[in-house]
Amino acid sequence: MKYLVGEASAGAAVYAVQGDQAYNLTALNPAVGNDLMALIKRPDLVNAVTAQLKTAPRVSVASITPALPVAAPGTIICLGLNYTDHIKEGGYEIPEYPALFMRGKNSIMASGAPLVRPTCSTQLDYEAELMLIVGKGGRHIAQDDALSHVFGYTVFNDGSVRDYQRKTHQWTPGKNFDNTGAIGPFVVSPDELPEGAAGLKIESRVGAEILQSSNTGNMIWSVAQTIATISEYTTLEPGDLIAMGTPPGVGHAKKPNPRWLVPGEVIEIEIEGIGICSNTVVDETDL
């Protein structure tokens, strides 16, 4: 199933997407609610709406303004340094343990929303990433069982303010400016993608300018390994978000000059089989 959370003429709803058409699951069954949390927590509800899908009211995908797939995720965990060539372009050593950091809820927003360059910096960078949404929670999840804990996969732009990222050994400041982490718009269930969402083309671009182009098969730590590693130290909950790191080609590593995002540009992140996350860059002073 391919899901889209957003707002159209009928209001906020969860939709099932087939081609350019979207079926209103919330209108079909009000228990679905206005984001994916009910479906994440209730597999029986997923089965029920899937069986009745063709009876749901239908609109065009283009008529829907995307919202966050999960309105209030409990935890947002991001994996850094997960592609070898990206590690090298950043001047880091290949780590023996994944570089993990967290984002706060104010730092994320939906595909289509403004991506905000803050007043204090011009070093706004892009990072194309695969993101997973936790379905079944747990602690000490075995790697062999980890993929059964995934509800779906989406697209993430881990917008980073590089000078603030490097002010300390911890990356928290540069990764948590308001409205810099774009998510969505689509969430695709695991059965419609290769195992662990591996082997998918992943790309970032501005217009015809291709900034990053790689494949999720190049990740050092797989989705299953990452879930198992994270669950060693914390309990994962339904609706938690995990971002899987970015491939090479980020702006700060461009030679001879860094390639920062500037207001007015539209940055697109595309992952094969999932979709395109598209956001216009705006200056904070113009909001």
From TrEMBL:
Source organism, top-level taxon: Bacteria
Which key words tag this protein in UniProt?
Hydrolase, Metal-binding
Q: Which residues form the Fumarylacetoacetase-like C-terminal domain?
A: 75-282
GO MF term list: hydrolase activity; isomerase activity; metal ion binding
InterPro entries referenced in this protein's UniProt entry, alphabetically: FAH, Fumarylacetoacetase-like_C, Fumarylacetoacetase_C_sf
GO process terms (BP): carboxylic acid metabolic process
Which family does the entry's similarity section mention? Belongs to the FAH family.
The protein's name? Fumarylacetoacetate hydrolase family protein
Please give the organism: Sulfitobacter geojensis
Lineage in the entry? Answer: Bacteria, Pseudomonadati, Pseudomonadota, Alphaproteobacteria, Rhodobacterales
